[in-house]
Amino acid sequence: MTTSPDTDVNDTVFVLVHGAWHGSWQWAATQRALAGLGAASLAVDMPGHGFDVPLPSGYLLPGQPGLLTEKSQLAAVTMDDCADAVLDTLRRVRRYGRVVLVSHSAGGGPASLAAERAPELVDRIVYLSAFVPAGRPRFSDYLSTPENVTARGRSLHLGDPEALGALRINPLSPDPAYVEELRQTHYHDTPADRFDRWRSALSPDLPLAIPTTPVTLTAARWGRIPRTFLRCAQDRALAPAAQDLMIAEADRAVPGEPFTVHTLPSSHSPFAARPRELAEALVR
């Protein structure tokens, strides 16, 4: 299906916020599709993410020495640091017209906090299977709910997150079972010949502050921004029932601008599996 963009899409800038272990690069194919639909976009690298991020010292060495125990160099990264990176981008693009802030997964926390602090910079906020702090303040509050019990991926976490200061995974693991669990959790509908390229680009550490720091939203600020939730119906990392719980609790807590909800027939990573469909959903 070919989607006709909104009449104001040529005056719209999409600010794209990545999820855990990813970076601005995750949006490249979606950005190409958005450009083809006449929409400008800018992707954010939050602190502790992207190709400049420091890695555990043994991560790229044979045997990956110390991977289970070495404290993350990202342990001091805070939620405020990440929200500031989003705010900096919002301020830079505001002069170009309408701004739509899009976040994926764990990126929902920093994006929400940025929108709360400067709602005048955002015309619409979109959550792509992303954390919405309106009902419960921490992403971990939703990850541990009964609604998320079917989610996969818990076995991917390495070591003690409190000691490491990060949720650590091993995208370069030599264990085929571990690699398959990573694929099934995040990329089960991504073509197999592209999955290895995707996983090789992932960073091993997610600063622990991102899923555990409380984010407080208010009706007067975040709540005045029109909001959309893009559900991922085949999501195995954040169960659809948990996505629905966040939507329902946010609408109860902040009812003035209830969510507009659309569903994609996708895994947790539609930017990898179906970027064209994702771009069309964003411009609708």
From TrEMBL:
Organism placement in taxonomy: Bacteria, Bacillati, Actinomycetota, Actinomycetes, Kitasatosporales
UniProt KW keywords: Hydrolase
Domain AB hydrolase-1 stretches: 14-281
Listed name of the protein: Alpha/beta fold hydrolase
Matching InterPro entries: AB_hydrolase_1, AB_hydrolase_fold, Sec-Metab_Biosynth_Hydrolase
Gene3D superfamilies (UniProt xref): alpha/beta hydrolase
GO molecular function: hydrolase activity
Pfam families reported in the protein's UniProt record: Abhydrolase_6
Matching PANTHER family: AB HYDROLASE-1 DOMAIN-CONTAINING PROTEIN-RELATED, ESTERASE_LIPASE_THIOESTERASE DOMAIN-CONTAINING PROTEIN
SUPFAM superfamilies for the chain: alpha/beta-Hydrolases
Protein's organism: Streptomyces mooreae
